[in-house]
Structures are given as C-alpha cells and as structure tokens.
Amino acid sequence: MRDSVEELCNRAKAGELPAASELVTLFYQKIFAYFRRLAGNEHDAADLTQRTFCKAWSSLEKFQGRSSFSTWLHGIAHHVYVDWRRQKNPGEPAKEDWWENCADDSPSPFENVAEQDTANRLYAIVERLDEESREAVHLHYYQGLSLAETAEVLNVAVSTLKYRLRDALDVLRAQIAEPKIEHVKFQQRKVI
C-alpha cells in the first residue's frame, strides 16, 4: 500500500529520495496533462512539468500543509505557466485538430464517432476561451481540483472562480449547440 501523500511529503522534506520519487510518480501525469492542454504541445508541456517539479523540490521545505500537496503543486504549475506565457508570449492557440493528433495510451471513452466529434469541438472551444476562463476550466474540470482548490491555485475568491466557470460554460453550451442547429437545418433542406 502506498504511503499517504502527507507522509511522502514529510519523508521527502527529510531528504528521502524514494519518497520524492513516489511523489513525482503520483503527480507527473496530472501536471503534464495540465500543461499539454495549456501549452498545446508535448515538448513545452514536458519542459514546463520539469520546471514545476524543480521549483517544487527547491521549495518543499516551505510547504506547510495549509493546502493539499496537489493544490500546492498546481499552484506552482500555474505560476510556471504564467511566467512561461510572459516570456514566450505565444500569439496563437493550438490548432483545432491538435486534439485529434494527441496520442492517448488509454482506451477511448467514446463509444461512437459523434461523441468524439463533440468532445473535439468542445476542446477546441475551450482553447478559444480567454486565458483566465481557460485555466479555470482546465484546473477544475480536467484536473479535477475542487472549487476551493482551483480558487487557491489561481489566487482568486471562490465566487470569482464560479463566475468564470459559469461564463465559460455559457460560452461552451452556446457554441457546442450551434453546429447541431446548422446540421439539422441542412438535413431539412436536403430532404425537401
């Protein structure tokens, strides 16, 4: 049975490399997936993940357990991403077909092509959201952080986070519904 994250943190703080290694094993994929979605490519995601863990290890002594280790690590990841965006200043988000080209080692959760098409459209719409809304969606929905944890990572009030998520969901609902309406109209014209 794996040790608790809190115990692993304490052991890693004491200099135990196996504990630090297990923490990396537990959180690497989650942090990498966060960056892959935000950065739009695996190369930058790997670099940002590496930077995050380097910063985490260099400041592990300062981790006081006031939040969960996951929240603390995502907070570091958020700041690494913000710094990277400032330095790189990427002008254009990932292309819409980027999601289709992402390799996934796990079996697909989609049972049919229509569901996969909807998910691809949804991912593309998320990528077009403003930066604050996009990060809120990534942290809360994709990373599975609670509202309180997401608000802590983004350093905003929970009410502000709820507002951002509600607005993002309104945009997503409106834009994901539009193609279906056009498709229905096209079918009706074709039949007549």
Count of DSSP-assigned helices: 9
Shape: globular
**Main β-sheet description:** none
CATH superfamily of the largest domain: RNA polymerase sigma factor, region 2, helix turn helix motif
- The radius of gyration is 19 Å
Share in β-strands: under 5%
Strand element count: 0
Order of helices and strands: HHHHHHHHH
Whole-number mean pLDDT: 79
CATH topology of the largest domain: Rna Polymerase Sigma Factor, Chain: A
Describe this structure in words.
The chain has 192 residues and is an all-alpha fold. The chain has two domains: 1-92, RNA polymerase sigma factor, region 2, helix turn helix motif (Rna Polymerase Sigma Factor, Chain: A), CATH 1.10.1740; 110-192, Arc Repressor Mutant, subunit A (Orthogonal Bundle), CATH 1.10.10.10. 74% of the residues lie in helices and 0% in strands. It is built from nine helices and no strands. The protein has helices at residues 5-13, 17-39, 42-58, 69-88, 98-101, 113-127, 131-142, 147-154, 158-191. α2 packs across α4 and α6 (113-127) crosses α9 (158-191). The longest helix is centred in the last third of the chain and has 34 residues, at 158-191. The radius of gyration is 19 Å and the shape is globular. It starts with a helix and ends with a helix. The relative contact order is 0.09. The model is unreliable at 181-192 (pLDDT under 50).
